[in-house]
């Protein structure tokens, strides 16, 4: 598969996020790191979109046999090593064909009750899942893509990736060597990326681990309420009386139904 062709499919149509009425900051005041991070996330997601689009069209042109689909799934993995798994899902929500071979034992798994699979069947449009515990045994994000043959949906393509790994690769070069922190949360507050992998899956508005830090909870609530903005907050450093002051800036990445708050926290 020609990598250049895939890149042509990955059109970098960056979405513009508008600030809500109660937002107190001008876009020119955002840290440059935040804009770089948002752009990098959009770029990578659009590359994933290009790969999915081309692979879905390729599968649609086949007889949907194992012999014809396996090579297409393998080519997806070779094109971008950030994809952890590629799978063909039949109309009953069964994971019929999977690559790489290390996941061979879960072929035949029924994922029809997963929320993003239900939504894909309802809309017949690409869907980015929320963070979920995949049958593979880790927390991941699934970019599901319909396969249309003769104007009818005949199955879907699952592109599974580990957000901590993917976002770490593209964001670490941006904030490396700084005192700033960066994380990404869904619009419901669930963390899908953090420099500390133990934070992934926690909710910034309600997780018990944060209840001892009301400043963090209040900041988290503001972050999920608006698509972009800033908030000052403070908290006591664990096991000390040292008060930490920070300011968080955030913008939103919107991608096939997903809304991710990209947040940069700087010392204040």
What descriptors fit this protein?
268 residues, alpha+beta, Beta-Lactamase, 11 strands
CATH topology of the domain at 44-163: Beta-Lactamase
Task: Count helical runs.
Answer: 6
Largest sheet: 6 strands, antiparallel
Which structural category fits the helices and strands? alpha+beta
Q: How would you describe this protein?
A:
The chain is 31% helix and 28% strand. With 268 residues, the protein is of the alpha+beta class. It has a domain at 44-163: Beta-Lactamase. The strands form two sheets. Strands 1, 2, 3, 4, 5 and 6 form a six-stranded antiparallel beta sheet that branches. It has a five-stranded antiparallel beta sheet with strand order 8-7-11-10-9, with helices on both faces. A hairpin with a 5-residue loop joins β1 (85-89) and β2. The termini are far apart.
What does this entry show, briefly?
This protein has 268 residues and is α+β, with helices and mostly antiparallel strands.
Break the fold down into its secondary structure elements and pairings:
Layout: H1 3-9, H2 32-60, H3 66-79, E1 85-89, E2 95-99, H4 115-123, E3 127-128, E4 132-133, E5 139-149, E6 152-161, H5 163-175, E7 181-186, E8 191-194, H6 214-225, E9 229-236, E10 243-255, E11 258-267
Antiparallel strand pairs: 1-2, 1-6, 3-5, 4-5, 5-6, 7-8, 7-11, 9-10, 10-11
Helix pairs in contact: 1-2, 2-3, 2-5
């Amino acid at each position: 598969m020609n990598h250049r062709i895939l890149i042509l499919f990955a059109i970098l149509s960056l979405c513009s996020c508008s600030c809500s009425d109660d937002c107190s900051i001008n876009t020119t005041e955002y840290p440059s790191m935040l804009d770089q991070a948002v752009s990098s996330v959009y770029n990578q997601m659009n590359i994933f979109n290009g790969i999915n689009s081309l692979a879905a069209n390729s599968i649609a042109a086949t007889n949907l046999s194992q012999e014809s689909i396996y090579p297409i799934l393998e080519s997806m993995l070779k094109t971008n090593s950030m994809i952890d798994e590629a799978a063909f899902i039949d109309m009953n929500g069964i994971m019929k064909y999977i690559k790489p071979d290390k996941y061979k034992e879960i072929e035949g798994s029924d994922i029809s009750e997963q929320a993003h699979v239900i939504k894909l069947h309802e809309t017949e449009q690409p869907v980015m899942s929320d963070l979920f515990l995949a049958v593979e045994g880790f927390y991941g994000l699934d970019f599901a893509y319909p396969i249309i043959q003769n104007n009818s949906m005949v199955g879907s393509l699952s592109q599974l990736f580990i957000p901590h790994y993917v976002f770490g690769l593209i964001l670490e070069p941006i904030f490396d060597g700084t005192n700033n922190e960066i994380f990404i949360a869904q619009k419901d507050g669930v963390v899908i990326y953090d420099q500390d992998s133990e934070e992934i899956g926690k909710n910034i508005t309600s997780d018990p681990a944060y209840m001892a830090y009301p400043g963090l909870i209040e900041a988290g609530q503001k972050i999920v309420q608006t698509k972009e903005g800033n908030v000052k907050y403070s908290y006591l450093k664990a096991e000390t009386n040292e008060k930490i002051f920070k300011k968080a800036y955030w913008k939103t990445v919107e991608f096939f139904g997903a809304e991710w708050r990209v947040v940069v926290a700087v010392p204040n």
